[in-house]
Amino acid sequence: MGALLYGIGESTYGDVTFKAKAQKFGLELPLVHSVLLNRSTLYSKKASKAFGAMFGEIKKRVKTLKKSDPDRFVAGEINFKVIPDNHSVAIVCSHLGKPLYSIKPGKYTVHETHPQVNNEPLDRYKEAVEALVQDIP
After folding, report:
1. Residue 104 and residue 85: Cα distance in Å, rounded?
2. Which end of the chain has less Cβ packing within 10 Å, N or C?
3. Under a CB-based contact definition with an 8 Å cutoff, are residues 40 and 81 in contact?
4. CB neighbourhood size of 109 (10 A)
5. Are residues 2 and 65 in contact, defined by beta-carbon separation less than 8 angstroms?
6. The pTM is what?
7. How far apart are CA 25 and CA 1, in angstroms?
8. Do 98 and 92 contact (CB within 8 A), yes or no?
9. Are 93 and 100 in contact (CB under 8 A)?
C-alpha cells in the first residue's frame, strides 16, 4: 500500500504508482480511513493461524507507513476492521445483482449450481459490513 499508493519506500513501479498518476493529473492522495483484514476464516471470533499471521504482517506494514506519513490516516489513527469470509454470499450477491441486505438464507441458482447461503456466515458478514458502514463519518 505504501509503495503503490503513496510512493513510499523502494518501488519498481516507477511512474505507474497511484501517487505518480495523481500528481500528473493534479489530484490529492487519499486518506486511509480503514484497513480491511478481508476474507478472514474465524474461529471463536479470532482469525485462523494462517490469516492471523498474514494480518500480523499487514498490521506491521501499515504501522510502518503511519510512522513515515501519519497525515495519511483519518484523525491520525489506524482503524483495522476484520471482515469475515463471506463464502457463498458474495457469489450470490454478484451473480444475481442483489444487495447484501436482500439476501436471505436458502438455496440460490448460480449458473448450473445451487449454492446454499447459511444463517451463521450470512449474519456474521452482515454484522461486519454494518459495523464498517457505521464507522464511516
Report:
1. 17
2. C
3. no
4. 11
5. yes
6. 0.74
7. 20
8. yes
9. yes
Q: What does DSSP assign to residue 25? A: T
Backbone angles phi, psi at 35, to 5 degrees: -115, 115
Radius of gyration of the chain (CA): 18
pLDDT in tens, the chain (137 residues): 777 788 777 667 777 888 889 999 999 999 999 999 886 565 666 666 777 788 888 899 899 989 988 888 998 889 998 888 777 888 899 999 999 999 999 999 999 999 999 998 899 889 989 999 998 87
SS3 of residue 122 by DSSP = helix
HSE value, Cβ hemisphere, 13 Å, CA-based, for 88: 16
Question: What cell was used for 11?
Answer: 518501488
What's the chain's length in residues?
Answer: 137
Residue type present at position 117? V
Helix ranges, 1-135 (H): 2-6, 18-24, 49-68, 87-96, 119-135
